[in-house]
Sequence to fold (801 residues):
Amino acid sequence: SVQYKHQEIEQKWRRIWEERPVNKEEGREKYYCLDMFPYPSGSGLHVGHWRGYVLSDVWSRYKILQGYHVLHPMGWDAFGLPAENYAIKMGVHPAKATAENVENFKRQLKEISAVYDWTKEVNTTDPGFYKWTQWIFVQMFKAGLAYEKEMPINWCPECKTGLANEEVVNGECDRCGTPVTKKNLRQWMLKITAYAERLLKDLEDLDWPDKVKKMQSDWIGKSHGAEIDFQVEGMEEKLKVFTTRPDTLYGATFMVLAPEHGAVAKITQPPKKEEVEHYVFHASMKSSVDRMQDKEKTGVFTGSYAVNPLNGAKLPIWISDYVLADYGTGAIMCVPAHDERDFAFAKQFDLPITQVIRKEGAGEEELLEAYTEEGVMVNSGPFDGMRSTLAKEAVADYLEEQGIGDKTTNYKLRDWVFSRQRYWGEPIPIVHCPYCGTVPVPEEDLPVVLPEVESYQPTGTGESPLAAIEEWVNVPCPTCGKPAKRETNTMPQWAGSSWYFLRYVDVDNSRELVSKEQARKWLPVDMYVGGIEHAVLHLLYSRFYTKFLHDIGVVEFQEPFTRLFNQGMICKNGAKMSKSKGNVVSPDNLVQDYGCDSLRMYELFVGPPELDSEWDDRGIEGVYRFLNRVWKLVHENIGREVPVTQELEKLRNQLIYEVTNRMNNFNMNTTVSAFMEFNNKFLDLSKNQGGVDKETLSTLVVLLAPFAPHMAEELWEALGQEGSVFENEWPVHDESKMKETSVQMPVQVNGKIKATILVEDGEDKESVLAKARGAVEGKLDGRAIQKEVYVPGRIISIVAK
Ligand code: ANZ
Ligand code: ZN
Fold:
């Protein structure tokens, strides 16, 4: 019999596909399936990287078979610190190192045999690309969304650069792990806060994992409350606080200002001056995360008092670093009875605690911790006896009437610190003129090309290495022509990735970022596949950019990514696969020994695609054996005249149903197991009952094509079929022929339909529930099943907590 020679077959079909791409236009509807483009690092691809790329390719090929014209592009997010750090260490220009890495990545990516359209490649470091990154900045500047501000920013002393809030993780630099400090610097900021409400509201309609939507909405952090004015005793000064709990106002017993609050110097009484200044200085060195998380509360009394506007109580005014300068008004009224941080502070400094909300029916007793729940109002004058939930609104209304407060909404989202004091990024296209001020570089002069420098070493003074290149820095002002200076800060790595998906559809356009025609044809992205680590960074920035580009008429839609899928990580020995952990598995040998098709299938078989999965080198052998059995099945039936029996019809339709259904639920791992099960049944028929008919074999091969494309093409040809297997239409099952299998039934988790399963006539409850559990297994986000309800013929409903 004919042997399965994966190397020969894979080379053969790669050659053929290059001449005859399987992805055809022919007036088909479009489908845009996108991977988060990689940073071309020096260490290349490991099998963990393969996972997402295989997923998106299987999905793209599935869509091709469903009749779509698919755009599946690839490119490079190539600016950023690693290339620059490497340049500093090795003296190799980042552009050169990047080009080599891209070359290597591309060679490795080709091993996956994805249907990438390489004519649409983008690279963020290519001047033809970053011209438009700069152009967007200029448009934002003109719209008042890019502005300069002197401010204390997160500063990494190791990378010697400013960082966005998003790049600080647990108080450490996201890149190098060094504790982040503060530094006062002139920064370029993007006013993403102007889009806060739209970014929040439009999340609703996205077909994204709930987890990611929640992370974004928490990050945007909208809260309703009131701003209330407190008179400082014996001074003109009024202090405005932001509170989400106006209902607790009668319980305010002291106030706290952020150390950076503008009124601190004015209200500090002379005997307290030295102590306050000392405290303010030390607070400025801490990162905001540390300030929020420090268990031990610190603070100093200013010597001044404010007056509680409702009951006239005298409130000592303190300063403490648990109050952040850039949230709300930077000042708070403290209600230790009902707020945990205030409670800790009151205990620490022996300040009074007045309870104003009590659990219904409870008597008076000393509080051992803050009571943060709802209840009934006490010690609150006219509001006594009211439910606290209602008092929130009632007190706020009263404050408005009296002119002491206003209802407000606050967002946690901050404007985006957009400048970096580094070399390897897009130059910010601005000229500083002593006469005209800040002038954007005229559009016809874009791109502002990154010049060559002698040294990539950051200066550490807060200026980028570009500042040292006089002939580049000194330019005539674009407006008045007098001597002026270029901006020497560069953009953060996120700049290019915030809009690259728009460029793929019109890569060579030198007149526009993207033409209306191409944008209409291809955008937005239908399916976006990438890691969840980008939930609040890249995915929020991209949404902001898209909304802005919509507003200035570049694109006609408001959301860039209609559907999002986050693949889990590949782990080995319990840790995320990565070069630094020393646990990487290279795909090269596996491809050689077992073939690309086997590795593709094993990447999917390794576990539910949305969950982290443990890599096992031996696992690929099982998949390889399976492909050999498919090979054997087809070859032993070629040339046999096999009549179509009812049994074969049933199996063929069941196979179509199972594969399609699991694919649609994105259960790629169980799709692979379906293939294995059915193939065993077919082998059994082939051995014991006269064989498997050509239509069934052909169907199996078509269904298998997205997963193991080379083998599918080879077997399609061996079956004597015409053309490429990808010219087929995805098969559709005929329910009437599936015989004992009768109904499709939805499976709900906490009231939302998460999957459908096939329930057979007379199937018992336990078996149905087991199937249902299996179908939603990967969608419980770690919650445990509490309850299962089976309504025969209708639905299975699962409650998980
Ligand atoms: C009084 C109060 C009583 C509060 C109570 C809470 C509970 P979110 O939901 O995060 O918006 N706050 C306001 N500005 C702050 C700042 N700059 N730094 C630190 N804390 C600040 O929380 C708003 C609440 O956080 C506000 O409501 C304020 O404390 C505090 F029983 O005011 B609250
Ligand atoms: Zn000028």
Remarks:
- The chain has five domains: 21-124+501-572, 133-201+212-217+415-486, 222-411, 586-737, 740-800.
- The mean pLDDT is 93.
- The pocket of ANZ (ligand 1) is lined by residues 223, 242-245, 248, 258, 323-324, 327-328, 330, 332-333, 335, 338-339, 410 (CB under 6 Å).
- The radius of gyration is 32 Å.
